[in-house]
Amino acid sequence: MFRYRRYRVFLAFAVIAVLALYKFGGSSASWREAASSAVGAAGLKSAAENAAQVDTKPRPAVAHETKSLELNIPAASSPQSLQTPPPVKKPPPPTSGPAATKPKPKQPPSIPTQIIPQPHGQPAVVDNGPDSPTSIEAIHWKKLPENFPVAPESLITLPAGKPKPMPKIQARFNPEDATTKADRLAKLEKIRGVAKKSWDGYKAFAWLHDELKPVNGSFKDPFANWGATLVDALDTLWIMGLKDEFGEAVKAVDKIDFTTTTRPDIPLFETTIRYLGGLVAAYDLSDQKYKNLLHKAVELAEILLSAFDTPNRMPETYYYWRPQFASQKHRANQGVVLAEIGSLSMEFTRLAQLTGEHKYYDAIARITDNLEEFQNNTNLPGMWPTYLDASGCGKVYADAPAQKPLRAPAGHLKDPLSDVSETVAPSPTEMLSPEGKKYVPLNLPEPISFTNGDAVDTEGKLSPEGEKNDPLSLPDPIKFTNEDAVGSEEKLSPEGKKYVPLNLPDAVLLLTNKKEAKPEAKEDSIMPGSAGKGQIRNWNGKPLQKRQLDVDLDEAPKKTPDDDKATPVEASSAEADTPTPPECVAQGFMSSPGYGREEFTLGGMSDSTYEYLPKQYLLLGGQVNKYRTMYEQSMDVVKKHLIFRPMLPNGDDILFSGKLDFPSKDDDKVGDLTAENAHLTCFAGGMFGMGAKLFDRPEDLEIAKKLTEGCVWGYSMTPTGIMPESFDVVPCENMKDCAWNETTYWEYVDPLHEFRMQSYNEQREKYEEQLVSASSWYEAQLAAMTPPPTPSATVLVKAKETSTLIFADTLDKRQLLDLVDDAKIAHAPSPTAGIHQDRESVMGGESEEGEGPPTKVQASLDIEEMAPQPSLTVPAFPYLYSPSPPLNHKDWVQNKIQEDRLPKGVTRIGARNYILRPEAIESVWYMYRITGDPHWREAGWAMFLAVDKYTSTVYGNSAIDDVTKITPELNDEMESFWLAETLKYFYLLFAEEDVVSLDEWVLNTEAHPFRRPE
């Protein structure tokens, strides 16, 4: 119990302490306010001075430890000034280049610093630069000796001949009138303005980073943080006449360090087409004046070339560049994407032409050779699957060699007796072995030993340890013998059983206690004193397990070919001569194992491999004819199996290129065609057009036009006027007759309507069967229940007098009358009958409730509450699933079209977003340059207006989530190809025709122009 008087002193002290804390706590808060207000103007030093002025009271001395605690905390030692947050305001649009923002040069990777919470509306800034106290030293790539170098005499060199004359690709254009020119220049300026805004946003918020986030004005680095947009847009700036911006970007290229990145791997394909292609193209376009562009291209190419250091010289498409891993031996992957390995040729070829280094061309020429060899060996000869095995390593199906006997390593079981070099004469015990080998007893742990004859030597001569050797008690029929002949079984066996030698591994020989090992058998013999490391199988009489060999005791051991060998040394030599199966068999490209059905397409994961075939032919001046052959073979297959005409309401005569899945589910078909049109496939129109002019294939030019028209139709079919990433349509049976059929269209939109109705009918039948069964069961359960009893008529019982009376004063008031006879109580007369009693004299006044002798209710009384009641728990009816009737075919299709916002003729939209892709406008530009038809400029301008309207932001243009919405949402992403490709193609469409002429330049898949050889 708490004693107040005892603890009153402590309570008083506690009250004083609380008041003191409150007082000093308030002064501390005022000190902090003064400090924070002063910091904004004078920094940390002035804040400390103000604190000293506010609180100048002397502090009590603090006891220190004898040894001071010293902690090396860089963050505490570096001066950091506290600043009051500035007022939130909208950042003004950038008006100058990167010099205005003074971006810091790219720093080595570091440990991220803790993000300090900032006021609302002001983003927190994470600084991981060199001044950061937590920065760590960056890892840099360095050139390592190659594991699989190519001999100089084996290099595949660039063709040394003069380029062949090439057919003209561009059309002849007529001079334009003044009105047309003015309109064209106005459109050109509009496109340049959009590009300038995107570039200014990148300079202001994402300088030297990979991509701008144009909605919130930040950046991200999905590649290697090497300024992807900066390098990718170099030639666009030059083409659009933004020479000042181009000069700033060229200087910034020197700040990019290709030898280090925070990313553990380098994507070979993306880095080659964006970075290497961008540097080489900018060097070409600027008349090779900016030498640093070529130097940076060589620096990057040397890193990328290290990915080719594999046994078959096929690259690792994701190169893990860090020296500790890169120094090891590696192979290319078994599941390589076709486009990633087949789209490296143009960039490395052009670099080889500019530098004269044949190793760059050798790297990609070997890929071409493998593609050529594999082209007619695929499941669809002429095309390549989207995934292929580039490892160069085939599986080996060879029987494993026979297992050799186990041998102890040299000196592992060495015994002092083995050092004696005296030659041992053959022992008579060798006669006991059918194989001609010696049998000796094992020297087992004491007191178990083998005997060395038929009697124990009492003098201890047979025991090196001077102990008596007792015979070993082995399971009954297996025993060791040390007598003179196998044939004398009955003499040697007291039980009259046959002795057989223990079938030990051939290489392990047992020696007698008296004899020494021969020098040549030293390593393969077990000497006395060394056998304790093992245990004889079945020593304790346990049955043999599954993996043990059963021994037939009635037969002598069979002789094997290995028993004819003279000595264990010879066996070891034979084993050494056995060839080891190779790890793999060299092979070229193969279909990737484990990918199930193969896919053949011109779309994603394949596209640029086919695109590079005619372009590489141009870049090499037509001197390597295999590129033309490979292109023509592949396009013949594409036209036969992949290109189709869609069924459309207006009967538009357009073409799409789908994808073919192999093998087909139908034995009569090569593969199953998916009638899809993807945005990535829209490049095919330009490729077919170029191939038609270059290789004199006039029928391909008509296909090129219709393929391009198909993508233009894809833009016009949506509310936004922008084509989605992919969508499906109904393929026509042939390209000539393709009338609209509503029934067929509905079948493709709802291909499972018959199955749906069939499934419903089956479920309904099953439900009805279950309902009948459940109803029968329920009725049976109700019938089995006991019906409630019928109340019987009231039985009147005549009261009878009894001689035994119970009076109130006989028992206590609360006492039960359990011992009173029920019959007597029931027939007891009332107090008014017979003898009259004075209640007041007995009970002391008025009568009380419940007074008097209780009586039990007879069962025969007609009382409703006491009558037997029926059970209130009835059996539960079984729960049955009642299938809901499905919508009919017409209603289902109409709901599907409305819910998915399907344009008329489209059966499914696979991906609704748009990420500023360039492939459609690319083919439109090619068609204009090849045909000269102004229709393509009209189509391209409509596409530009739609794209800019729905993707425009304050700082650039952003990808959108759904082109079928009236107001799509911005995804805050602006990939580098927006400036490198999309806007470049829009600009070139309205530029003068000699700007990047197709007869002088050839563009890679990222729209980077390389000068064709003259």
UniProtKB/TrEMBL annotation:
Its EC number is 3.2.1.-. Pfam families: Glyco_hydro_47. Signal peptide: none annotated. One of its GO terms (cellular component) is membrane. Residues 84-96 have a biased composition (Pro residues). Pathway: Protein modification; protein glycosylation. It is an enzyme of class 3 (hydrolase). The keyword Disulfide bond applies. InterPro entries: 6hp_glycosidase-like_sf, Glyco_hydro_47, Glycosyl_Hydrolase_47, Seven-hairpin_glycosidases. One of its GO terms (molecular function) is mannosyl-oligosaccharide 1,2-alpha-mannosidase activity. Belongs to the glycosyl hydrolase 47 family. This is alpha-1,2-Mannosidase. The lineage of its organism: Eukaryota, Fungi, Dikarya, Ascomycota, Pezizomycotina.
